[in-house]
Design a protein that fits this description.
- Two copies of one chain form a homodimer.
- In chain A, the strands form three sheets. Chain A has a four-stranded mixed β-sheet with strand order 6-5-7-8.
- Chain A has two domains: about 5-265 and about 410-445, Orthogonal Bundle (2-methylcitrate dehydratase PrpD), CATH 1.10.4100; about 275-390, 2-methylcitrate dehydratase PrpD (60s Ribosomal Protein L30, Chain: A), CATH 3.30.1330.
- Chain A is an alpha+beta fold.
- The first copy, chain A, contains 20 helices and eight strands.
- Helices cover about 50% and strands about 10% of the residues of chain A.
- At the A-B interface, helix 3, helix 4, helix 9, helix 10 and helix 11 of A face helix 3, helix 4, helix 9, helix 10 and helix 11 of B.
Chain lengths: ~450, ~450
């Protein structure tokens, strides 16, 4: 296919023209599920180092108190709020996952909209529609350039998220098609982010920037700040620079408005690299059924799609952040403690001698015939007994999605670790009622401790 | 060569360990020439649309009045000042050029240092040393990934400039080696910028971000904000993501501290794409010698290296910004008006009927045997006369550098277009005396009208 020249304009027309009534009920509901899950992980993450440092630094350069920092009492300017809330939501990689691209869709987009909604009141429906449109642009661009884009080193949540944030914020600002093209261009030239930074606080910079720069791009476009006509598909534009080979052009615009990428969104029960989830399911089920004593275990074999080993075969880890992408740590902790929550991914748990001893017994085998959603765990006991289980699809996957109640429960659990005295039921209720809210920004205050 | 793992650390050690006395006199002086040239173009650019819009927008999100916006009375926060002054200096692409990479070295780096120097007073020598080190990192990374990086669509001034700004600001903050590695990592994951945006205000976003994000990266690193150990050379780091094929590893660190990229810096006499400069020289010389009447000209043939046509063969342009990369417009305006200053690149001049008529007579020929620094112009008159000239190297090139006095004159000319009543001699004197200044930030106030 020759290089098309209609991509950005088609996006702009779609974003400007879509209506709430055109969004199927399931998509409308999925938008609320995504936001509820995001609030859960943002409350969990809002006091992490990456947030503390960037908040303290940004506050030194802005005296404005325009918007809420989720889970905290400080107020900051609108651009910084977008940055910080995106960082909080994503810092543990416990937020949502678009499986085909491994994009975390909500973190760059929702915070841009929240900050804007506090600056200029909008209805909940307007916000939810803008959110759905932003996710659509973000994930379609991701689909077109995956998996090479990420493999090359680009942190896809950041690079595609910035476009999604610009699209969403642009819609909330009621930009016209030309302005949306400018907004997407401004975002395209302000995006970046490297996979190399995963596991360090620096990871949060590009995620925060995605929300901040996407929002700013839309605000600039509203002022008439112009960009090129084909920022995405142009010869020296986003897709050529960020996709090592030709993108899948059809993935960008085919069926736009008919299919919805939000329906491909998933929510993690565990704060762990998504490929390790079926392994944790298997380990927890085997513990429940056989209660193997750790010291009586001879060897554990984890088998899965080659991507499992590529992403999570890390027997030697020393920090909680590293452990989140270690299948050895995940299996050891699950078998020892019967859980895979944030408490199993603290630095202290990672250094626990019992965990270290069990981690050393775990081997990872690659099986190209297995689906990436599946995994098998075999526990060989010193007495010769063997306990084995194959999990075809993990909890939280598209085949076994978390229920609304399970996402609520995730929020309650994470909020309890954040601020046990805080009643989160009003927040949960407000998210479910967002499509009926007259002032969509109001519910953010329900996340402020003591408010 | 196998992938090395010492690159970022070597940079960090070099930046932390260098001293002013190790910097050769010529390099010290070239740093001042670069800054003088930058002040000239920043004064010229400080009221362009890209600056007006971003200033108005950023001011709505920060109440801080910490630093000078060059050439203007507003004061803004330190991060915004870095952004805005970088945008001003580069908006016309009239700033300096590192020819091997076509990086504009000063715009992303000097504004980060200026803003920092206003926040925390430092000596002029400290600032000049930090500047030279920043340019060294910026241009060495550019050398390692050129020309493919730019050809792919990356705006190299932005992508490499952000690293240079982090290196320079990190040195001014007296960061240690580990902190400098974190600063370079934070900058690496915050950089971007697309060639597609050239010719539009959106171009300035990535240039401004390079200064702003580089500075912020150093400030975060000072706070202990950690990043990965090998952000540049790591498998999913900056060089792999931003260089389409393997970088020239040796260009990164060979001879570090022995050679200085600042000595490769050049200053434009004309606000035009650098490859068109010898053409303008030829046109001005032919006008001077033969004074051909425009209506008596039959045809003009411009001949040059294929890059001349690739970058500047644009017979049909409608705006001043486009005309800056049109060799047809440049030749027509030079022959008609005897100059190639900013007044020849206004929208009005581009639409002048006499210019349009002459532009239509100009053909561009490619000659692979010609050096990229050279060009030939042949004017064929209707009466059969032919006037021809070959220029082997343009004014302002490394072979024919602008003198100190010519850079001063460039500043005076551009300042006259900015604010005719403003006496710029104190500013010129202050730049030449920067290595003896106790408070390096003080001279910025000399750029404020009415101050």
């Amino acid at each position: 296919m020759t290089r098309p020249s209609h991509i950005t304009r088609t996006f702009g027309q779609f974003i400007a023209g879509a209506t709430w009534d055109q969004v199927p009920d399931r998509v409308q509901h999925e938008a609320k599920r995504s936001i509820l899950n995001f609030m859960a992980t943002a409350l969990a993450g809002c006091r992490e180092d990456a947030v503390e440092h960037t908040l303290a630094s940004l506050a030194a350069f802005s005296g404005m108190k325009q918007a809420t920092v989720i889970g905290r009492t400080e107020r900051v300017d609108v651009l910084s709020a977008a940055f910080l809330n995106a960082a909080s939501g994503n810092v543990f990689d416990f937020d949502d996952t678009h499986l085909r691209t491994v994009i975390h869709p909500t973190a760059p987009i929702a915070p841009a909209l929240f900050a804007l909604a506090e600056l200029r009141p909008v209805s909940g429906r307007e916000l939810l529609l803008a959110f759905a449109l932003g996710v659509e642009i973000e994930c379609r661009v991701g689909n077109a350039i995956s998996p090479e884009h990420y493999a090359r080193g680009w942190h896809i949540t950041s690079t595609c998220g910035c476009l999604g944030a610009a699209a969403a914020a642009g819609r909330l600002l009621a930009l016209d098609t030309d302005q949306l093209i400018w907004a997407l261009g401004a975002a395209a030239t302000q995006t970046g982010g490297l996979v190399e930074c995963l596991g360090t606080p620096a990871k949060s910079l590009s995620v925060g920037n995605a929300a901040r720069n996407g929002l700013w791009s839309a605000l600039l476009a509203e002022r008439g700040f112009r960009g090129p006509p084909t920022p995405l598909e142009g010869r020296q534009g986003y897709l050529n620079a960020l996709a090592p080979s030709a993108p899948d052009w059809s993935a960008l615009t085919d069926g736009l408005g008919e299919t919805w990428e939000l329906l491909q969104n998933t929510y993690k029960p565990y704060p762990v690299g998504i490929v390790a989830h079926p392994v944790i399911d298997a380990a927890l089920a085997l513990r429940e059924k056989h209660a193997p004593q750790p010291e009586a275990i001879q060897r554990i074999v984890v088998r899965g799609h080659p991507l499992l080993a590529a992403r999570t075969d890390r027997p030697h880890v020393t920090t909680g952040r590293e452990a989140q992408v270690s299948v050895q740590h995940s299996v050891a902790a699950a078998l020892l403690f019967g859980g895979a929550g944030l408490v199993q991914y603290t630095d202290a748990c990672v250094r626990d001698p019992a965990v270290l001893a069990l981690r050393a017994k775990i081997d990872v085998e690659q099986d190209a015939d297995m689906a990436v959603e599946a995994a098998a765990v075999r526990i060989e006991m010193k007495d010769g007994a063997v306990y084995a289980l194959v999990v075809p699809a993990a909890r939280g996957s598209l085949a076994r999605p978390l229920s609304d109640r399970e996402i609520e429960e995730k929020l309650r659990t994470l909020a309890a670790g954040w601020c046990p005295a805080h009643d989160v039921q009003p927040l949960i209720d407000a998210v479910w009622a967002l499509d009926r809210a007259e002032d969509a920004g109001a519910f953010l205050r329900l996340t402020v401790p003591g408010a």
